[in-house]
Design a protein that fits this description.
Layout: H1 2-8, E1 9-11, E2 18-20, E3 31-39, E4 49-57, E5 67-68, E6 73-78, E7 85-89, E8 92-93, E9 103-109, E10 116-118, E11 124-127, E12 138-147, E13 154-165, E14 173-174, E15 192-195, E16 198-199, E17 212-214, E18 222-224, E19 230-233, E20 248-250
Parallel strand pairs: 6-13
Antiparallel strand pairs: 1-2, 3-4, 5-8, 7-11, 9-12, 10-11, 12-13, 14-16, 15-19, 17-20, 18-19
Length: 251
C-alpha cells in the first residue's frame, strides 16, 4: 500500500532522486511499485503533469542464519543395523535465497570412531561402521549447518542423539567351569549344594538367565532353581549306592 511504500522510500521533489527512508527487508517484501508524478510550473492555461511507474526489486543479502527444524533430534537404532543404513535426516532452513539459502551440513563432534557420515547437501546421516551396544550406548553428534553466502553464515547448534538399542547378540558365559562341590550323604532334602552362576553382556530381558539341569537319569537327586542357579538336594542321598554325580547345566 501507499503508506508502506512512503515509509520505505522518499523522492526529492526537485531532482526526482528516489532514496530509502529505512533499510528494506527482502524477506518481508521483495517488490515495490511506486507511482511518481511530475508537475510543471506552467500557468497558461494550467500546470501540466505526468505519472510514471517505478518498479523496485530488493536483492538478497546473506543476513539470515540457517535454522534447524528441531533443537534436538533423537533416534533409536538397533545395534545390528546394517552398515550404510540411513539413521536420520536433519534439516535447517534459511530465509535468504539462492546460494545464500543453500545449506550444507557436517558433523563437528561426537562421532566416536567415525561411526556416522552425514551427506553434506541433504543432511542424511548414515551409519558406516558397525555399532555395539555393549561398547557405546549413545552418541551425541553436534551438527553444523552452513549456508552458501560469501562469507557464509554458520549455525553449530544442531544436536543428534543416537541411542543404540540392545540386541540379544551375546551368549551367556559361566563364571567358572566345571563347577565342583561335596555334600554329606545325610543332609536333608532342600539342602543347598552349590551356586551355579552365568553372566550375559546384553541388557534388560536379553540378559535375564534361566538355568536347567541336563544329562540326568530317572531318580536324579538334585534340582536347580531356574532363576537363581542354586542347586539343592531333592531326594535322599546314599554314598554307598552312588558316590559321584556328573551332570550339565544350561543357561
Amino acid at each position: 500500500n501507499a503508506d508502506e511504500v512512503n515509509s520505505v522510500f522518499e523522492i526529492d521533489p526537485r531532482s526526482g532522486l528516489v532514496r530509502i527512508r529505512e533499510r528494506p527487508d527482502r524477506e518481508t517484501r521483495s517488490q515495490y511499485q511506486l507511482i511518481v508524478e511530475a508537475n510543471d510550473q506552467g500557468k497558461e492555461p494550467s500546470p501540466r503533469s505526468a505519472t510514471a511507474t517505478v518498479y523496485i526489486t530488493v536483492e538478497d543479502e546473506n543476513d539470515n542464519y540457517p535454522q534447524f527444524t528441531e533443537k534436538r533430534y533423537v533416534v533409536q537404532v538397533p545395534e545390528n543395523v546394517p552398515v550404510n543404513t540411513k539413521v536420520i535426516q536433519v534439516e535447517a532452513t534459511d530465509r535468504d535465497e539462492g546460494n545464500n539459502a543453500k545449506v550444507h551440513y557436517s558433523i563437528i563432534s561426537g562421532n566416536v570412531k567415525g561411526q556416522f557420515y552425514i551427506h553434506s547437501p541433504t543432511g542424511v546421516i548414515d551409519v558406516i561402521n558397525p555399532l555395539d551396544y555393549e561398547m557405546i550406548r549413545e552418541y551425541n553428534l553436534r551438527i553444523k549447518a552452513q549456508d552458501g553466502g560469501r562469507p557464509p553464515l554458520i549455525n553449530s547448534t544442531g544436536m543428534v542423539v543416537v541411542q543404540v538399542v540392545d540386541v540379544n547378540d551375546n551368549t551367556p558365559m559361566f563364571v567358572s567351569t566345571p563347577f565342583q562341590a561335596t555334600v554329606l550323604e545325610n543332609v536333608a532334602v532342600g539342602y543347598s549344594v552349590i551356586h551355579i552362576q552365568a553372566i550375559d553382556a546384553d541388557s534388560g530381558k536379553n540378559s535375564l538367565l534361566e538355568y536347567r539341569i541336563t544329562d540326568t537319569t530317572p531318580g536324579f537327586p538334585f534340582t536347580i532353581n531356574n532363576s537363581t542357579g542354586w542347586i539343592t538336594v531333592s531326594e535322599p542321598l546314599d554314598r554307598e549306592e552312588i558316590e559321584f554325580y556328573t551332570f550339565g547345566v544350561e543357561s
